[in-house]
């Protein structure tokens, strides 16, 4: 397994995802002799994991069961240990497409943060591309390096511990794309421009606040970027639910056998697809919005180096 | 399988995309071919050899000329007003008439100069606020400084173009929805993907771009053959197509039940045309396949009749009476050619079937006009466990049903029904605000991950289903108040 190549069987040293049920999962480092506690009981790596196929159901000691999944950047994003606020797959998806990333692309990123976007970028540019990621916090930079190693992608990424606003990305004139998620992106636009290839490179800056966006757009214009465009993307998830709605009792008309419209107590309605045999309800399937929804992550500003 | 140098140049035969502000159009780069775009006519000849991303102006002769970088007029403090309380819109503030402007254009005066003339001849310009003046200049520039940029096609460019120009062709799949599919599906180099789409080949092209020529794709298709009009716009190098296979939907059931055979092939549109030609002798070239009639080129170049076929037909007509002997020989050759083609097709079909039979695909992408449920239920059989799948549907309801059927089937987890909302912003100093909200109309996605399917254990799948559902917020417990 690696984050850039599928494997079929769980091996010692893999990072696997343990899936317990709806939106409940966690990553696990597979190791001979280790055990992992879950609410369904214990998972013994040597007997329950190693050698099993990804996608297998594993019964834990207390009798409950889980699924073991092959890691992907998307699953990693949902389960990684946060050292900073992270980007989620909705933003990552549009960033990837708007930066025109693909195998072989050279990308620069700052800040590395918790590595959520980094894993996704590495996956997209593999096997012939490269990610140059810059993080000014020393421990975070080191933790990122460690994770890339564990996930089998260290050959595709270079982590540099420096301040991108002062010292840039460490490369020049080669990047197909640059991504910025830092407090003062306008201070890094010049460095981004010099990291980008001569013509046609793409840049993206992510900022939670509109004031940051304004300053960044100005800087992009000053440095001669074109096609400057700011957008935001929101995810709306729907739960699929069978809903039962009661039929109100509207009483009867004067005559006992005149029924107006929806008289579900009339047995001849049994054939109707929606009506329920039980007293006065109609069932249907609905996509129900979640009660709590993400309202804002940040603004994404894209531009082209001309 | 890789790429051009750092700056790709426009070459003859390329599919290029013309861009003016937010309007895109895909065209074939051919010499002496008149192009219409945004009310302008021109030839692309002069663009050949320039780098993609170059901006051109259209000269009076209909030729392209790279736009010179011009210094913006200096920012001296311009005369401006404070608000519009005294500005009356009587349509008379512009002193230049239509004819005056036309005369300027005919003289060959550049757009920038025309805009300057309009400003100088506007009685209200200096009363406008600075912001209003900015807006006025932008508007005039847009109209009179017609610049066209030639950009290299990519998923970003083509998906935006199709959504704006021909959304019906792609089932109203909006580009941000497509972006989600590619990421949720973990599309990357080395995958073995199954793609089923009726989006003119745009989704296929997007998948191919993210795979970079590595791995393999089996495209499932309805009817006679897959439509790949949009795919050809991407300009992929030939090797990308070496591992692109196709397989007819009409054979899926037989493959799943083990009764698959290559004896009866789905109708081949090209074959039908040839057969008709020969049986009728003098018949016109017809487009018989449904697929071909649905396929409208996104490019400017008209659908051309295959020149060799046309030539053959003409030769046959001309020599019919005199050289019957030769005609018989040609017929024999045509028959042999047909047989070769049939053999080729059978061989490819067998290969695709073999790939599917392995039941180890790394993912499934569905984006079609068909009801998603039967597609998912059958095509998921070919996907390995612990792999993502994504289904697009223009409407939500079929995905509700699909979700339900998948729960009954079991073998899938992490099912999610979603849509994305997109909002563009105008960002200007003191004038930043949202522009449009795009919600609804972009379609819906159902995504999930496969797991090992335990067949014949119906209670296991229902307990699985229970575990997969989000717990109801209000479970009525007996001791609580009645619901």
UniProtKB/TrEMBL annotation, chain A:
Region (Disordered): 256-275
One Gene Ontology cellular component: tRNA (m1A) methyltransferase complex
Ranges of biased composition (kind: Low complexity): 256-268
EC main group: transferase
InterPro entries listed in its UniProt record: SAM-dependent_MTases_sf, TRM61_C, tRNA_MeTrfase_Gcd14
Catalysis: reaction(s): an adenosine in mRNA + S-adenosyl-L-methionine = an N(1)-methyladenosine in mRNA + S-adenosyl-L-homocysteine + H(+)
Entry coiled-coil feature ranges: none
One annotated GO molecular function: tRNA (adenine(58)-N1)-methyltransferase activity
A Pfam family hit: GCD14
Keywords, sorted A to Z: Acetylation, Methyltransferase, Nucleus, S-adenosyl-L-methionine, Transferase, tRNA processing
Role of this protein: Catalytic subunit of tRNA (adenine-N(1)-)-methyltransferase, which catalyzes the formation of N(1)-methyladenine at position 58 (m1A58) in initiator methionyl-tRNA. Catalytic subunit of mRNA N(1)-methyltransferase complex, which mediates methylation of adenosine residues at the N(1) position of a small subset of mRNAs: N(1) methylation takes place in tRNA T-loop-like structures of mRNAs and is only present at low stoichiometries.
Protein name: tRNA (adenine(58)-N(1))-methyltransferase catalytic subunit TRMT61A
Recorded name of the encoding gene: Trmt61a
UniProtKB/TrEMBL annotation, chain B:
Basic and acidic residues compositional bias, start-end: 75-91
Upper taxonomic lineage: Eukaryota, Metazoa, Chordata, Craniata, Vertebrata
Protein's name according to its UniProt entry: tRNA (adenine(58)-N(1))-methyltransferase non-catalytic subunit TRM6
Similarity-based family: Belongs to the TRM6/GCD10 family.
Principal subcellular localisation of the protein: nucleus
InterPro entries linked to this entry: TRM6
Alphabetical keyword list: Methyltransferase, Nucleus, Transferase, tRNA processing
Region (Disordered): 71-91, 273-305, 458-483
């Amino acid at each position: 397994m690696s984050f850039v190549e599928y494997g079929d069987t769980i091996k010692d040293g893999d990072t696997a995802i343990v899936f317990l049920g709806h939106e409940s999962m966690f990553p696990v480092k597979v190791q001979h002799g280790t055990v992992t506690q879950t609410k369904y009981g214990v998972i013994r790596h040597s007997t329950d994991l190693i050698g099993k196929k990804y996608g297998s159901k594993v019964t834990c000691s207390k009798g409950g069961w889980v699924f073991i999944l092959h890691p992907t950047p998307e699953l990693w994003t949902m389960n990684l240990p946060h050292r900073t606020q992270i980007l989620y797959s909705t933003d990552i998806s549009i960033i990837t497409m708007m930066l025109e990333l693909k195998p072989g692309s050279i990308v620069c990123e700052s800040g590395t943060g918790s590595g959520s976007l980094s894993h996704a970028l590495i996956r997209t540019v593999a096997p012939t591309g490269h990610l140059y990621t810059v993080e000014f916090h020393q421990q975070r930079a080191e933790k990122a390096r460690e994770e890339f190693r564990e996930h089998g992608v260290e050959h595709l990424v270079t982590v540099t511990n420096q301040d991108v606003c002062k010292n840039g990305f460490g490369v020049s004139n080669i990047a197909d794309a640059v991504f910025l998620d830092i407090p003062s992106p306008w201070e890094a636009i010049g460095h981004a421009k010099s990291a980008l290839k001569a013509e046609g490179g793409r840049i993206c800056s992510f900022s939670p606040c509109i004031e940051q966006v304004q300053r960044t757009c100005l800087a992009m214009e000053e440095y001669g970027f074109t096609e400057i465009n700011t957008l935001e993307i929101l995810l709306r998830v729907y739960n699929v639910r069978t809903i039962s709605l009661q039929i109100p009792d509207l009483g009867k008309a004067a005559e006992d056998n005149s029924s107006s419209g929806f008289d579900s107590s009339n047995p001849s309605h049994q054939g109707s697809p929606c009506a329920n045999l039980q007293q006065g309800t109609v069932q249907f399937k609905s996509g129900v919005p979640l009660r709590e929804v993400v309202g804002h992550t940040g603004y994404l500003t894209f531009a082209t180096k001309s | 399988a890789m790429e051009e140098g750092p700056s790709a140049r426009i070459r003859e035969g390329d599919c290029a995309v013309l861009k003016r502000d937010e309007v895109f159009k895909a065209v074939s780069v051919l010499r002496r071919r008149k192009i219409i775009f945004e009310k302008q006519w021109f030839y692309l000849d002069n663009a050949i050899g320039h780098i993609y991303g170059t901006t051109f102006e259209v000269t009076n002769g209909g030729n392209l000329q790279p736009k010179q970088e011009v210094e913006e007029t200096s920012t001296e403090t311009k005369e401006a007003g404070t608000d519009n309380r005294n500005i009356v819109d009587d349509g008379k503030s512009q002193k230049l008439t239509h004819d005056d402007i036309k005369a300027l254009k005919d003289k060959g005066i550049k757009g920038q100069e025309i805009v300057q003339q309009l400003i100088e001849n506007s009685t209200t310009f200096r009363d406008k606020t600075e912001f209003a003046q900015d807006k006025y200049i932008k508007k005039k520039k847009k109209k009179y400084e017609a610049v066209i940029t030639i950009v290299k096609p990519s998923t970003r460019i083509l998906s935006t173009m199709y959504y704006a120009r021909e959304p019906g062709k792609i089932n109203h799949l909006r580009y941000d929805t497509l972006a989600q599919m590619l990421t949720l599906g973990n599309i990357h180099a080395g995958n073995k993907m199954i793609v089923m789409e009726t989006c003119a080949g745009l989704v296929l092209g997007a998948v191919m771009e993210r795979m970079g020529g590595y791995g393999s794709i089996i495209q499932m298709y309805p009817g006679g053959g897959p439509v790949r009009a949009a795919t050809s716009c991407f300009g992929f190098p030939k090797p990308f197509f070496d591992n692109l296979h196709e397989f007819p939907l009409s054979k899926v059931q037989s493959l799943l039940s083990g009764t698959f055979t290559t004896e009866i092939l789905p109708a081949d549109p090209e074959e039908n045309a040839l057969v008709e030609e020969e049986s009728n002798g003098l018949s016109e070239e017809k487009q018989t396949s449904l697929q071909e009639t649905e396929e409208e080129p996104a490019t400017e170049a008209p659908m051309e009749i295959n020149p060799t076929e046309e030539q053959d037909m003409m030769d046959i007509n001309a020599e019919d009476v005199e050289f019957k002997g030769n005609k018989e020989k040609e017929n024999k050759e045509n028959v042999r050619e047909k047989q070769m083609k049939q053999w080729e097709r059978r061989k490819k079909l067998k290969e695709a079937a073999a790939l599917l039979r392995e039941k180890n695909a790394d993912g499934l992408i569905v984006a079609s006009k068909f009801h998603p449920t039967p597609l998912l239920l059958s095509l998921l059989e070919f996907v390995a466990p612990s792999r993502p799948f994504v289904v697009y549907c223009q409407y939500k309801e079929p995905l509700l049903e699909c979700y339900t059927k998948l729960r009954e089937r079991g073998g899938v987890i992490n099912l999610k029904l979603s849509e994305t909302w997109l909002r563009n912003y105008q960002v200007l100093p003191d004038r930043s605000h949202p522009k449009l909200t795009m919600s609804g109309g972009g379609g819906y996605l159902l995504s999930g991950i496969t797991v090992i399917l335990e067949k014949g254990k119906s209670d296991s799948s229902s307990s699985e289903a229970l575990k997969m559902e989000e717990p109801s917020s209000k479970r009525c417990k007996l001791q609580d108040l009645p619901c």
